[in-house]
Every structure is written in structure tokens, then in C-alpha cells.
## 1
Amino acid sequence: MSARTEVSNGPTTSPAAAAGADYLDTRVGASKMVKEFARKIFPDHWSFLLGEIALFSFVVLILTGIFLTMFFVPSMTEVHYPDDALPVTMQGLEMSEAFASTVWMSHHVPGGLLMRQIHHWAALIFVGAMTVHMMRVFFTGAFRKPRELNWLVGFTLLILGLAAGFSGYSLPDDVLSGNGLRIADGVLRAMPIIGSYGSYMLFGGEFPGTDIIPRLFTVHILIVPGLILALIAVHLFLIVWHKHTQFPGPGRTDKNVVGFPLFPVYTAKAGGFFFIVFGVLSLMGALMSINNVWAYGPYDPSIVGAGAQPDWYMLFLEGSLRLMPGQTEFVLGGYTLSLNVLIPGVVVPGILFTALALFPFIEAFVTKDTGEHHVLDRPRNAQVRTASGVAILSAFFVLNAAGANDLIATHFNLSLNAITWAFRILIFILPVICFIVTKRICLGLQRKDRELALHGHETGRVVRFASGEYIEVHRPLDDYERWVLVSHEPRRPVEIAAEEDSAGVRRPGYRKDRLRQRISRFFYEDRVEPVTPAELAASHSHGEHDELESDPARETLEAR
């Protein structure tokens, strides 16, 4: 019996696949696009998955939302819930078709409740992942040139995510969502001149009207998702165009990217991660009950439930309204100026969000930095930026906690008024305290890094020289550790030219430069200078530790 050996010259392609590939290549240049994208390099770090969680959560929202639109009726027409349908507590009650279809879907459509709960959890995770992703971008300085535009795109996506969540949260027309709409109507009416007209136009008459649910349905399933899809495309295009940022490390510079190609490594990882996110959301939807609207009942303007809070991403607005004293309402010329609603509902959120959106441009104005940055900052090395971010977050945390002041009072048996006054004080002093403490922590960590880069790790082993001198032997850092500690650029306050030239003529633009200098001093006057090549060389001459054969960190410093 003879053995038979077959020799293959490589993988074969079917004629149909080859013809299809040739068709696409000759008409849209598919091979060029595939070659370009397949060779795109993406760095590998766990924090980059935060943006993917947001993206995959939005995909789950689209898939489950398509299912829900098949059964939801976006109408405020009054009907009576069937007497023979579940749940028993709803039988025969008068309600809108929107509420009735939501309850019917949850109890009588196979998989309806599961899809509703997956959709709601995905919405919460979507906004949460975007928020944490933007925090990562902010604290690492990933918004610097050339990514300022992409920062604004991401910020707009966050605002659209809040709009999508609020519009979807209001669709069931239950007591809880109806109260949220009533608050939104109050904020809109508090705006001078345009408020009442805007409310009448939005609701089609006096609140609640008969048009708000169909209009919110259009906003929720068409306008906002369409804008989000368009901006996601822009966001991903800019990521590919600018190339991905990366954390500092040996061999990583502003002119390269160290990582894995898009195909097949990154594609396989992203595909697997999508199913992980989908699986976790499915488990949450199956095992964790959320937004059981039949427990609240259909919307009735005369009912306001105690302990009612919106979803977490809108809780800051609720807290802001609860903290504002009610005495700041005035009647001027026959018109009511409701500062007790206008300030917490419009001014405070506007200030916080505007500061967040414009921070990249403020920092660029201060530093006069016009170079491109593709290597990320360590948050400790940008002390004012990090402290500012923590201060803004602390303000949001206070507002979120204030939105649940009634629950805190009942659960811990505390005075509601005392809790409210405590939060009123904290909203002013906590951001300042957090800024100061965070800045000092960052400076302390910079000093620690400086000492570590110069002397290495302490070993606790003390030796004595022949001369009688005692020293502690330090373990030298490896290439990666030292690179991370010394590779960042020094940041110093901006120096400006004199106010007047030699002829005593005032220099144009001096006021602008003076403003830049003052802000720059606020950013960088308190600082710890990075290690210089001379200091690094001197630290290796004391005999505290052995020289490394190659030191990329020193080469980087000398080149800088």
C-alpha cells in the first residue's frame, strides 16, 4: 500500500469570490481601502476598551430598540387596560395607549420584558461608558492637537446620549417619567421671553397636551440616533486619520504607534469583546429588574411620588433644582423671573458643561503649544488639569447626591433640611478642596517619580566603603520604568515680551499676552522639574547602583 502526499501551493479562492472582489476593486478601490485599514495599528491598553463599551452598548440599543418599536404605540389617546390582562393591578384603569402598550409588551409579548430591560440597562451603560471614556481622554490629555475637534465630537455625543436617554425614559407615560417631563417643562418655562412659547410649541398646548409622546418618539428613534450614528462615523474616522494615542513607554513617540494591526488581531479582539458586552447586558436584563412602570401607574398630573429619581445621568439636574432656595423668584413688570429654576436648571449645568467642552482650547491658549501630541500624559504630570477634572466631577457628585436627599434622609433617619443645607455648602467648598488636595497629591507623586528616576528602588541593604562611608544600595530601574518617569516634557509658565518697546510705544496684543501669562502661572507656577540628562548622569556616579548597559531614557533626555 503506497503512501500518497499532496502538496498545496496555498489557499485557493473560489471564482465567485474572486469575481466579487475584482468588481468592488475596479469600482470603489476596495483593495486599497482594505490594505490601508487592515494595516492600521492600534495600541493595546485596557482603558481603550471604555470607548468600545459605549459603541457596543449603542449597537445593543439599536437592536433591542428595533424590537420594541414593533409593539410600542406612541399615542396619548386615552384607553382602558383590558380586564383580562396582566398585571391585575392595571386591569380596567384609564391610561394612554403608550402606557398600555408598554405594560402589554412587558407581560404578553414573548421576550418583551427582557428586551425592555436590556434596552434600559444598555442606555445606562452607554452613557456611563461615554462618561468614563471622556474622563480617560481628559485626564491623559488625549484632546490635545490634533484632536480638539474629536473632543468636541465626543462631547456632542455625550449630550446626544443624555437627550436619547431622557426622550426614551419619558415614552412609557408613567407617573415617574411624567414628573420628569413636568420638571423639564418648568425649566423651559423659566427661560425669559421664549419659555412659555417654547413650552406651548413643544407640548402642543398646555402641559401635558396630546402631542409630546409622539414627538419624543420621533426624536428618540429617528433624530437623535441618526445624529449619533453620523457623529460616531466622524469620531471613528478622525481616530483612524489622526492615528490612535498611546501611553508612554520605550519606543513610543509622537511619530509612531506601537500595537497590533486592525486585521486580524484587533478585529478578533473587538468582535469577542462585543459578545462579552452583549452577554453581560443580557444577563443584567434577565436578572436585574428595572423601570417596572406598572408599579408607578399611568401618568396623572395630580400625583407626585416621594423618593422618585430619574436615571443617574439626569440626577445632577434634579439635585441642582433641589438645592436652589425658592425665595429667588421675582415679578418684574408683570412677568415672573424664576431664578430658583433658571439658575439650577440652565445656568449651573451650562457652566459645568461649557467648562468641560472648552478646556482643551483654554489649555492650548495658556501653553501656546502648537505641536502634535500622540503620546498621552500621565495625569500626575498635568497637576492643574487633573485637579480641575476632579473638581468638576466633585460638583457633579454633590448634585447627584442632592438629587437623592429625600432617600438619604429616610434611610439614615436624618433631617432633610440639614442634608439640603450641607449639600448647599458642599457645592461651593468641595470642588475647591478637591482641587487643592488633588494638585498637592500630583506634585507629591512627581517628586516621588523624580527621586525614583534618580536613585532607583530602595532595597534596605546598607554597605560600607573602605573609606568608612555608608550608603544604601538601590536597585536600578528597568528601561520601561525609567522611560515612563523621565520622558514627559517640562511645563513652565509662558514668558512674554515687555509692555513697551525701546521707544516707549505700547506693544499691540500685550493685554492678551498678559492674560495668558497669568493663567499660565496658575497652571504651571507650582511644578516639579523633570529629570535632566546631567542629573541622570550624576545619579549613576555615586555608586548607589550599577549602570545599565543601555539606557533609552537617557538617550531620550539627551535628544530632548
Note: The domain at 44-377 is CATH 1.20.810.10 (Cytochrome Bc1 Complex; Chain C).
## 2
Amino acid sequence: MPPSSRRRRRLHRVLGVGAGLATVGALVAALPAMANGNGPKNDKRYQDVQLLSFNDLHGNLEPPAGSSGRVTEVQKDGTVKTIDAGGVEYLATHLRKARKGHDFSVTAAAGDMVGASPLLSGLFHDEPTIEALNALNLDVTSVGNHEFDEGAKELARLRKGGCHPQDGCYTKGKDKFRGADFPYLTANVTDEKSGKPLLDPYFIWHKKDVKIGFIGVTLKGTPNIVTAEGVKGLKFGDEVETINKYAKELQKKGVQSIVALIHEGGVPVSGDYNYNCDSPGPGDGISGPIVDIAKRVSPAVDALVTGHTHQAYVCTIKDPAGQPRMVTSASSFGRLYTDTTLTYDRKTGDIARTAVASANHVVTRDVAKAADITALINKWNVIAAPIASRPIGYIAGEIGVEGTESPLGDLIADAQLAHAKSLDPTTELALMNPGGIRAPLTYPASGAEGDGVVTYGEAFTVQPFANTVNLVSLTGAQVITALQQQVSGANEAAPKILQISEGLTYTLDLTKSGAARVAVDSIKLNGKPIDPAATYRVAMNSFLAGGGDGFTELGNGKNMLIGSDDLAALEAYLKGNSSATAPYAVPKADRITIVK
């Protein structure tokens, strides 16, 4: 293909309607270079490599329900269109279609492929998701924090195969779980004793004379958001230091083209998947940890595929040498995938950075389902059906997860308070971490159960972690400190607002900063101010009781009493407070007064 045609093809890919806006500036800058002979004009010297990527699948094999299964797209006239998206049957079709015509195509992911998964995958320790990723021809992924939900040994089993040590084999014969066909990369996750990476730190993708190295890391703060047992014996190193270390090692091995798979991300100004992240200038439309990381990662790295924040973006952030570099993320739950063109220079073995183009694409549901993935899902659904379809309650409408305080957050906090009171009638309040609520409770039927019926499978999707409901004694001063930790310390840059049970109220003033955002004199329990000197019995899940999500004060509770798992608490609450004739009303989410 002549160089001019290739340039037009790339520009069309970047600017095409509905394809997601990529970094046009880098591409436009490349055109003079190409004309001058400094860019990809000789097809024998330059080879386009297609990099398909996604992140934060979280075992969502079936189309995600409610808001978790939608993306928004800004139109040319400024209006916003909502599109149903996701489902691995559709993701497979889109990826296979995208690969057509590309002899050099590699597929990579940036962590959290498993963990916090819906019942279809989570019930079987995510074996179904690994099988699906094998079928998708995933070449490599970094680990995310959720790969450690069940610990390092379970991660190793997912990689190598074999039956679960407690639950045994779910399938036999040819269907026996064989593990991942792709490497999980853990460059910054090391054994505390040996100092060696838990799994491979990098992977070299090699086709004919083209070599690209992939370095995989997860966020260094993983121990703060995973149970202590899950990361026992492991050390999580700095992302930038680790990537730079292994970039040098790859270069010594003759690999000059390098991509970093980083399970850490940022937040764009807009939630629309095709928002122009490079407006008004390169990288101006994004904030968060990935910005600092991108600015410090060695110029030897040619592109960054990121995740963790469940956001969609395609940005240009300059590397330490001042050169433009692509930084991408494809939202979550398989709703998007990123298509990036890396132009490989056979003479230098490096990527011609000015010729890199990238765009996010919606995994729409208007394409044919991939038959092999459908068969895989059906196989696991047959095994799961007796458990998944069991009704546990009734709701009057969708109970969503949107907002600083969400209706579903209120419901779960109330359910945990009720369970705790059954164990200790003196319990007065409950707190729930927002990250532990993974999906809304949708009103439309997911199967044959009927609208408004909550099944065990749907509830499992909401709370898949199998945390226990724990009771601890905290002073009023500690409760106040915990509420302040929502918006200060580890959570100041990205607040984590606890969902609270009925009776607890306070004002959150977002016009202020740090701990001052929590108006202490507004904190009341059943209409009475919290007494700093008094002792309160407080319910929360075991993750929070261990000080997770930066709530170190909650980890200082005394007189702990451990109850049932959180899903059992939700089931019991719905059974006791709803029926077919009197469904559970959607909570008002009015316990926290927000000042903006």
C-alpha cells in the first residue's frame, strides 16, 4: 500500500464517526516526517502492528446489566447517545472482525480480568473467564489488584490449571480446567523473602522479524485495597521504577519496542467514551495517578495500556524526553476495546512514535454472537442454574449504584445493620465501602423469574467477595475519624464515600478540602449528635474491619464479633422485607447532605 494511502487509512481510523476520538495531533505531526522520508514510507522497513487491548473485565461473560452495561457517546452536535455494550460473545466477534486484514496483531490486557465477578464466573473461582480469554486469543495481561482476591496460590492455579484445592473439579475429561494460555505479568509483585517476581515480569511478542516487549504491573497500593490474606508474603513495588528497570533489561536483550500494561489509571473530564482527552492540548483532559506515572516512565516505553479506574480514554501524555506517547484505557466489563496502530521500524527495532494512532471502540450488541463463546457460557450456566435462579426478594424498581450516596448502598448498609442486630441488639450503625458494590439491582428480569424478582445470581453479582459482616466497638471519635478518612489521607485525591445505614446522617461539603469536607457538628445518629467519648457497636464487612480502602481507623475496632457473609445478610434482609405483593421500595439515598 503506498504511503499516502496508509496515512489516509490511519487518519480515517482516528476521525471515523463512532470510532472514538484518538490523538490526532501526533498523527498530523507525522505527515511531514513521512513526506520527508523520516517516517513510514518504505513498506519493507516499516510494519504496522495492531495492538488490541482491554481492561477490568471482572469476569463479565454475559452482557452486564443496567448502567454497568452501557456507555455514552458524544455526538457531533454535542448531544449524548447511550449505547448498550459488553458481553464476551460480542467482544469476541468485534475482536475477530478487527483482526481481519492484519497479519501482525497482538491482544493485551491491563489487569482485573477476574475477581469481583458475576456468579457465572465467580461461583467457579473464575475458571469460566480464563477459558473465555483463551478463546479470545488474549496474548498477555498484567495482573490487577483483584487477581489477588483469593491469594497468590489461586492466581498460580488460574495460570497453570488444575482443580480448586477445596471445591475440586467442576468439569472433567476434555473440559477439565487447564489454566490460561496467556502469561500473567507481575513485574512489581515480588516474594518478600526471595525478592523475585511472583510470575514473569515481561513477555516478548515475536512474529517474523518483529519483536515487542510487554511489561506488566499493578498499582503499588494493591495491599490497601485487597484483604491482607490475599497479599500475604508479597511486596508491591513502585510502578515507574519497575517499568524502567525492565525496559532496560528488554533493551539489553535487543527489544527496543516496549508497551507497559499498567493496572492503574486516571479520570477524564468527561465520561463519554469518545471524549477528546487531548483538548485543549495533549493530555489536558485527564487527571489521576496515571498522569504522573506516564510523565516519569522511561522514553524507551512506546505506549501505556492502563486500567483500574474503569474509565475510557485515549490520551497523549509526553514522556520524560518531551515526546508524545499514547496512554489508553477501555472502560470496564468488556464494553470497549482499544485499537492502536504501532508502526514498527525494522531498521531500529523501535516504534516510530509519530505514526502511532489509537481509538476506543464500543462492543455493541448488534453483531452476531461468537458461537464458541455462547457454547462456553451455556455450559457453565447449566452448572450454575440451580443456584443462580433461586429468588431471594422483590424490588419495586431498579436500585442503582450511581451517586455519592447510592440507593443500593443504603440497602446494603441497612441489611448489614439488621444482620448485626440479630447477633448483638446493641448494634447502632453500619458502614459499607462503595467498591464492594459491583452492580445495580436491575428491575427487568434476567431470566424467566419475572420483573422485579431478585435472584441469588443477581445478588451475587452485586456482592461477590464473600466478606463476612463483622461487629466492632468504636468510640464516637473513631467514627468521626473514619468518616473524615473518606476524603483525606489515602482517599483525599479520590474520595471513597462510605454507604451508611438508616439513622446516621451528616453533611459532606465538597467546596472544602481534606477532612474539613465532613462537617463534624452535623454528624448525628437517630437525630442526636455523635458523642466522641461514647462507645458504639458498628457493623461493617470484614474488608473494612481490616482497615481496607484507606480506612485505617476502622481497623482499630475492639471486641470483634464475626457474623455471616454479606451476601447471606442481603438475602435474609430482602426475604424479610419484601414480597411479590409488597416489593422493596427504592431507597431515597438522602442520608448524606451534599454541598457542592
Note: The mean pLDDT is 92.
## 3
Amino acid sequence: MSKDQPISPAVMAQRRPPAASVPRPAETDQARLTGTAAEVVAPEEMTGSQAIIRSLEQLGVTDVFGLPGGAILPTYDPLLDAEKINHILVRHEQGAGHAAEGYALASGRVGVCIATSGPGATNLVTALADANMDSIPMLAITGQVASSAIGSDAFQEADIVGMTMPVTKHSYLVTDAQEIPRVIAEAFHLSSTGRPGPVLVDVAKDAQQAMMTFSWPPQMELPGYRPVTRGHSKQIKEAARMIAAAQRPVLYTGGGAMRADVPAELLELAELTGAPVVTTLTARGIFPDSHDQNLGMPGMHGTVPAVYALQQSDLLITLGARFDDRVTGQLSSFAPNAKVIHADIDPAEISKNRVADVPIVGDLKYVIPDLTQAVRQEFEETGTPDLGLWWDTLNSLSETYPLGYTKTDDGLGSPQYVIERISELTGPDAVYVSGVGQHQMWSAQFVDYERPRQWLNSAGLGTMGFAVPAAMGAQVSQPDRVVWAIDGDGCFQMTNQELATCVINNIPIKVAVINNSSLGMVRQWQTLFYDGRYSNTELNTGHNSRRIPDFVKLAEAYGCAALRCEKDEDVDETIKKALEINDRPVVIDFVVSANAMVWPMVPAGVSNDQIQIARNMTPEWNTED
């Protein structure tokens, strides 16, 4: 999604003018960062709380998700009068955090959430850790007890700065009201530049209440923070030489490409090189699934051609990926004959898991075009490589081992079919958000992704309960798109209270509960590795169970439209009904078989060469020495 797309909340009767997009790092200066129109505000007296709201307004923030409490109450008072900020009252602080993540992922803008001290702040920790793992720009503002009471075990006191330092890009404690504009501006800047991530600002209650002199823009104090944006020219030239010499190259594309917003740049590089492209779980959609060079998702539940291509490659052109264990499998046996070009904005990722032969530190928005230019020049001098044999092998694998599934043998619904039909009947203009587990992998496999920011999920942390609140945030940022939360019956029960938020605020998400009456991925592992001993995975929500809860009744109690589908032949009609309802959220209880499994699969801890296409069935391929 373009960062220049107008952003307006679904809850507002009239559209606001769009706020400014987050600037590219190399373009950032004080005026561009700290005001949508480089607005200068003359000094004026106000409280620290008013300064918080005013700072957010100056930064172009239009939507925040939060839940008030005693320590943040001073800030909620001026928020009531804010004309530029729409506050959405969530039912749980974790929901606020995930909503801010969904907002950021769908729009490319910084997501903002607010909570009070103690348990309010600690309820944000899961969302902060999630955003940190997936490099999501997010600003969390929390209240803290008065500075004089810090350290005294005061009521609802918790050291949230200490708790969140390992799972945020940075955390601030503000005890002086005069520091608020600077800290908010710095937090916003840190969150949205370099490698994006969450930043927490904890503001003592007395700092919120104290008088201060507000002016804008503030003078930021970040002397050690200078993200490198341009890749080193010699490294880029060396990378181009390696690409020109490679016979089995692969463009290994990760979530960093999505954060850098480089679909056009990646497409140009891919078509120039002719190399196959694999897109990780967080990169799905950055390169169109319909493109002939797209081999799909690599890793534990990736496609056979994608996994094979990485294993047999002689050159990995790694763009914004981090060689995580779900992609590499047994790291020592991953892509054993490949040299590695690794481009990433975060130097800490380069050579962390796999040593890079050519490291390139920089923003992919600039690195990829520079690399494309260097490759084009190299091709002009040495000729374009012939990748015909490489593609013959990969195309043969694609034909022999296409991504698919078999119907269930118990007569119950097929979850893959449900998700496939949701994709077909809704199309790529929609946003698809998942929880974590089998339904997440099926959604990654069987939805057609044709554009960036079409697919949102919790990848690195694997947070159950992500889908509903993240879909809510995505819908607020994209009111004109259909937003599907494809959730599991286990995940759905963790955060479904945010349906109340959606109903009250007219946020019409559509929730497809893939109800196999169990913790599906855990059950799959119990089937495969624990001799079918199903210890504590039955949820009693599906077919021939007590249906506790009954998802249809639950949805109706929240004021949603509620549907149930138990047969494959009824799937299309049910989805079409859901797509016709746009005045409130829709929840569909898709009752499916518990026996369906996610294939292909690389068992944990083994080489990707041992990928299975079904239980105890491994593809036949000739591997290189």
C-alpha cells in the first residue's frame, strides 16, 4: 500500500485530509519529521498532558487505540477535546497494541496506542515484543505513577521501561513535562526510521499535570542514531559481479523489503536478473504470486520449489531477510553451496546467522535500485547469464509438486478450501489478517497475494490472538477495503472481546473462524511426533462437541452478524453473504475437520532437504554435491 494513500478512520462521518506519509530516512530532516506541513508553533503554556496530544497532532497522528486508567487520566482529559485525533476505546490493552500493529502494517504509518500504568502497561508487552520481532513502527504511550512515588511500590506501579527495554527499539521514562515534545518526536523518529520498531514512552503522572512551555518543532537529541541508508558502492559492484557469474541465483526476499516499500524496485531487479524469487512469511505480496518468477514461500511450510531453490542455489541474493530458523531449518545444512549477498538496513542482522560473502548495509529503497543499475552495467559488459537449466529444474518441480491439499476423510469441511474460496471471492484488494497456527500457514499458502500490505500476521513471535485486533486496526487505516481476520478457534478466544470495539465504532471487519475444535498446530505435532497423544488440545468448539462457546451466539451477543458453515458445498454461499454485510462486523464459524494438516512440512531441527509433502513422503530430487 502506498504510504501516500489517504488515511481516515472508519468511525468518522466525514473524511479528514490525509496526514503526511513517513519520510524516507535519507529525506528526513527536523521540519519534515515533526510536522505534516513543517508547521512551526510559537511557544505557549500548557500542561504536559496537553503537550502529549499536541505533539501527536503535529506528527500527523490521526488515530490512536487505548484504554484509560488513573496514571494516564490527565492525558485523556485533553484528548476529549482533540479535533484531529480519533481515539478508539479498546476492551483490553493487548488489543490496543495489536490494533496499532495492524494499523501500521496496513498503512505504512506509525501505529499509536495508549495505556495506564501497572497492569495496563504490562498488557502491552506482548504486542510490543511482537512488533519488535516483525519490525513494525509503533508508538506506545503509558502513564506512570508520580515521580516522587517511583520505586516505592505505589499502587499500580510497574517498571515498564525496564520490562520493555529488551523488546522495544527504545524506551523512555519522562518525569519532566518540558521534555515531552522532544521525547515524543524522538520516539516517532526512532520508530519510523532505520529498521522500524516499537518505542515506548512512559510519562509520570506529575509530568502530565505540570505546566510547561510548548513549541514546535523540538530539538531532538539523538547523537548516536544515524541509520545508514546508502549501500557501499564497492560492495554493490561486487554483488553485481557475483550475480552475473551465478548459475543458480535466488532472490531471497524478507519482511525488510515490505518495510522498505520496494515492490516496484524488486520487480525491476527480478526481471533484469531472471532469478527465481522466494518471499518469506512477512514478505508475501511484495512480489506478485501471479508472476512466473515467484516460487512462493520458503521454509518449514514453504513450497517444494522454493525450498529446493534455496538448498541448491549457488547465490542467495538476500534482501531484508534474517535467515531465521523457520526458513533455514537446520542452519548448518542450509544452502550449503551458496554464496551470500546480504542487504539489510540493520547491520546487526548481517552475518548473525549466516556469514555474508558480500554484506550491504542500507535502506533497500536505495540499495535495490543501485544494485539494479550495477547489474545492468555488468550484464552489458559480460552478457546476461543463461539460467535456462536452472529454470528447467524449478519448473519441473513446480509441475510435479504443486501446492495443494486432499479432501478430509471424515466428511467434514476442508480448511484449505475455505481459505482458498475467501481469497477467490474477495480478491487482492482486500486485507487478510491471521492469527497463529495451522490457519496462518494455510492463509499464507492459499490466498493469492498480488500487492504489498495485503497480508498481515504475527510471524517472529507467533502471537495467538493477533488477528481480530490487528484486523480492527487495519480496517481503521483502510476503511474502503474489505478486511478479513482469518482466525483459529483457539486464537479467536484470546482477543474476541475487541468485537465489541468494532461494533461500537462501526469497524466492519469480517472474521472467518477456522474451527477445528482444537489447538490445530499443536495437535498436528502431537499426531506426527507424539504418537497421537492429544494432551490438552481439544477445545470443544466444533462438530459433535459441547460448543463452548457457541461462536454464533457469541458473535450475536456482541452485535455482529453471525453465520455458520459446516460443509464445503455451502462455503461459497456463506462467504458471499458475509461480503454483502458492510454495516457491522461479520463472524463466520467455519466448522472443519481436525484431521487436516499443513503440508509441505520440514520437521523442526532437520535439514530442509527432508521436506515432506505428506506424512512420510519426501520429494525425489537430485541434489548437487
Note: The CA atoms of residues 564 and 589 lie 5 Å apart.
